[in-house]
Structure formats: structure tokens, C-alpha cells
């Protein structure tokens, strides 16, 4: 572990279960982000030794290729309906509570989201994305990857049928956009207090013609740099002998934290240790859910409200008014205990919790006006509900 890094004690590091030291570091990171939104630069603190994980070196948005006008939208467009602290905590945990490293990491992720136009994937439907990125919709139609149900930890499960992947079937950018579509849609399915997802890489029928090293590198980068701490477990299921030569190439690319979450299963029954049989599709031995994946194309008029500029503006302003309050109360929280008088930290934290709940409600009122409906909104039994909850239907 590098100098200044701190391990996360089991059962800590999340909303509602922060140690006193973790809370200090979270406040420090909020303080630096809010300072950057106002000034665009942070100078090193002379009051903290460089070995202190709360010490932040010089950080300039300009040096990173960002500007303060885009920083706040990048922050809040990434938070979505989550508690705002959860995003910062993901990056702090990923960088072992080193504030400088966590801050640099989150800023680079923001830059990627801006440059790669992640909002485009949310704002356009599958037909529009496929018209721009060859093969985008084909991946949904064939069922290359799909979500279904939750595992025993309450994590949404995404199944990836690796045998269906042929590198030539879609442009590389279409594959990347499809991956982002899956990641951004999956975020809506992760329900608090759960913060991670379960991936099942079904290797049945895998051959070397399915191997795509460029895609693997992109996926690894997503989990490590852009969506840290979002992977709960990655199951490599029924890998054939030919895969192990490929694995020798891939394994050195993995961050130790990501690598530690990979599990290899040889039989369908091993999946039952992770996924309840009532939730596991019946195509797997022991699974009792008579589920068959079916793609439903966009329905004419399903995104009509995105054209209602007046209502979109109204709901946007309501959401922004709450986020401004959250930022103001967070500034108060950062300063709590440093001066005499004022409200107690507990009172301020109660306000932050309430505002975070109001932000979630306001965001999901706004969501259909800024996000195109997905397969999981329009399926026969919709998974994603308008209030931000997920409802899974099983056929046992």
C-alpha cells in the first residue's frame, strides 16, 4: 500500500457507516470539489503534511483539460438519483482514502464523460444510437448482454453471452457505447443500500473468434477508472480450455481490487451459491425462473415528453434548487466543529440526508424529460419504475 493510503475496515466506508477519519476525508474531498467549481484551482495546503491523506497538492482544472463551467454539470449528471456522497466515496475507496488521488481520479472520469459524451447515450434511444454507431442495436437484439433479477446480495445481475460477440459485427465505438448503455442503465437498477452489480460472463461455446482484446481493455478501464467500486462480483462461467491462454494475457491488466472480485465457476450449480434458484434463469441447471430474454424496440412516442421544453425547464429548476441547497448545507457541514456556535454536526447531517432524499425524488421526476426510455422501461413487465425503483418479475 502506498504512503498515505488507508485500508477500508470491513463494514465501513459507505453512507451511514463512516468512521470519524473517513468522514473527515469525505469533507475534505467535498471542500476541494466545491472550491474547484468556484475557482478552478487548488493550491497545496501548508497546514497538512504531505503524508496526510487529507493533504491535497496543486490541482488545476486547466491542466487537466477541464473548466469550472463544465465541472458542476459533470458532477451532478453523474450523481443521478444517488446520494451525492456515494459518488465521492466510490472514488475515495478506490484510491484508499487518499484525497489527492481520489480527486484526480474523479476529475479524469468527468473529463472522459464530457469528451465521450456519455449524456448522448442517455438522451438517444436505441434506434438513434444505432443509426450513428453501426451495430449498436444488433447487440441488444441478439441478447449479447442483458439484465435479469438480483443475486443473493440484492445486486442486479447482468448476463453476458460471450459466444455471441463477433468483433466485426459492430464498430468498436458501437461496442463502447453499448457498454456505456449497459453501465448507465445498470446504475438505475442498483437500489440503495446496494452499490454494486453482479456480472456473469457465460463462456459456453466461447472460441478464439469471440475474443476481443480491445474491448476487454475498455471494460477493465470502465470498472477501474470510470465506474469504480461498482463491481460486486464477476463470474467467469464454464470457461473452456482455450480461454486459459487468453486469461494469461488479460490477468496482468487487472487492478488487484478488480481481480479479487473475479470468481470462476465450472458448473451451473455453482451459480446457485451466488444467485437464488428462483432468480436464476431455468436454462441453467437448478435455475427455476422460466425467463427468456426478448428485446422490445423503441415505441413511437415513448419519449414525447423530452420535447416538452417548458416542463423540462420547470423540473430542472426544481432539481437544481435542491442541489444548490445541498451544496450550501455541505459547505456548512465541512465547517462544522471548527468554530464556536452554529448548528451541531448532527443537525446539519440530518438536513443533508433529507435533501439527498428530495434530490432523488426531484431527479426521477426529471428523468423521463432528459433520458430516453430503455428496454427495461418498455418491456412487458417494466423493470425500471418512474420513481427510480426496480421491480423484477420471476416466473417460477
From TrEMBL:
Matching SMART domains: CRAL_TRIO_N, SEC14
Pfam families assigned: CRAL_TRIO, CRAL_TRIO_N
Domain named CRAL-TRIO: residues: 147-292
Protein name, as recorded: CRAL-TRIO domain-containing protein
Amino acid at each position: 500500500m502506498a504512503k498515505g493510503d488507508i485500508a477500508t475496515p470491513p463494514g465501513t466506508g459507505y453512507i451511514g457507516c463512516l468512521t470519524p477519519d473517513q468522514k473527515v476525508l469525505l469533507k475534505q474531498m467535498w471542500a476541494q470539489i466545491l472550491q474547484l467549481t468556484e475557482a478552478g484551482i487548488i493550491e497545496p495546503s501548508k497546514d497538512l503534511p504531505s503524508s496526510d491523506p487529507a493533504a491535497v497538492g496543486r490541482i488545476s482544472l486547466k491542466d487537466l483539460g477541464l473548466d469550472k463551467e463544465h465541472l458542476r454539470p459533470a458532477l451532478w449528471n453523474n450523481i443521478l438519483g444517488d446520494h451525492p456522497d456515494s459518488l465521492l466515496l466510490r472514488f475515495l475507496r478506490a484510491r484508499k482514502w487518499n484525497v489527492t488521488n481520489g480527486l484526480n481520479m474523479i476529475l479524469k472520469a468527468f473529463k472522459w464523460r464530457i469528451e465521450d459524451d456519455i449524456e448522448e447515450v442517455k438522451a438517444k434511444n436505441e434506434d438513434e444510437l444505432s443509426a450513428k454507431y453501426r451495430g449498436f442495436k444488433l447487440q441488444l437484439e441478439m441478447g449479447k448482454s442483458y439484465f435479469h433479477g438480483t443475486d443473493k446480495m440484492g445486486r442486479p445481475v447482468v448476463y453476458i453471452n460471450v459466444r455471441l460477440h463477433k468483433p466485426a459485427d459492430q464498430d468498436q465505438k458501437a461496442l463502447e457505447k453499448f457498454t456505456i448503455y449497459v453501465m448507465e442503465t445498470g446504475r438505475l437498477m442498483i437500489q440503495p443500500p446496494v452499490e454494486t452489480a453482479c456480472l456473469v460472463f457465460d463462456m459456453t461455446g466461447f472460441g478464439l473468434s469471440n475474443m476481443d482484446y480491445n474491448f476487454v481493455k475498455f471494460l477493465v478501464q470502465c470498472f477501474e477508472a470510470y465506474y469504480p467500486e461498482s463491481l460486486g462480483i464477476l463470474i467467469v462461467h464454464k470457461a473452456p480450455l482455450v480461454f486459459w491462454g487468453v486469461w494469461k494475457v488479460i490477468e496482468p491488466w487487472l487492478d488487484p481490487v478488480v481481480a479479487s472480485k473475479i470468481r470462476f465457476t465450472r458448473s451451473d450449480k455453482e451459480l446457485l451459491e451466488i444467485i437464488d434458484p428462483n432468480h436464476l434463469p431455468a436454462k441453467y441447471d437448478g435455475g427455476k425462473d422460466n425467463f427468456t430474454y426478448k428485446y422490445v424496440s423503441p415505441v413511437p412516442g415513448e419519449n414525447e415528453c423530452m420535447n416538452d421544453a417548458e416542463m423540462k425547464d420547470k423540473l430542472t429548476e426544481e432539481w437544481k434548487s435542491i442541489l444548490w441547497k445541498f451544496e450550501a448545507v455541505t459547505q456548512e457541514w465541512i465547517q462544522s466543529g471548527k468554530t464556536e456556535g452554529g448548528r451541531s454536526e448532527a443537525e446539519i447531517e440530518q438536513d443533508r440526508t433529507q435533501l439527498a432524499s428530495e434530490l432523488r425524488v426531484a431527479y426521477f421526476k426529471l428523468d423521463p424529460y432528459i433520458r430516453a426510455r430503455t428496454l427495461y422501461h418498455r418491456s412487458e413487465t417494466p423493470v425500471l419504475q418512474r420513481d427510480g425503483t426496480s421491480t423484477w418479475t420471476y416466473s417460477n
